[in-house]
Amino acid sequence: MAKKKSKPALSVIATASRSEATEADYFARKCGLTPDEALRIMREAYEASGNKVADSGKPKR
């Protein structure tokens, strides 16, 4: 049997909520960044404002 291939690591954008990803894409195009860089900057700014960043947009049970 063939050996199973490992899955590639997900980008930061893939783990973001849909609205976060959309905003990061817009910010990235406007500022000449990659979407991953834009999302990282947005999350750092949000944390610096005293709020905590959720891991994803899905509610926890």
From TrEMBL:
This is DUF3606 domain-containing protein. It comes from Mesorhizobium tamadayense. The lineage of its organism: Bacteria, Pseudomonadati, Pseudomonadota, Alphaproteobacteria, Hyphomicrobiales.
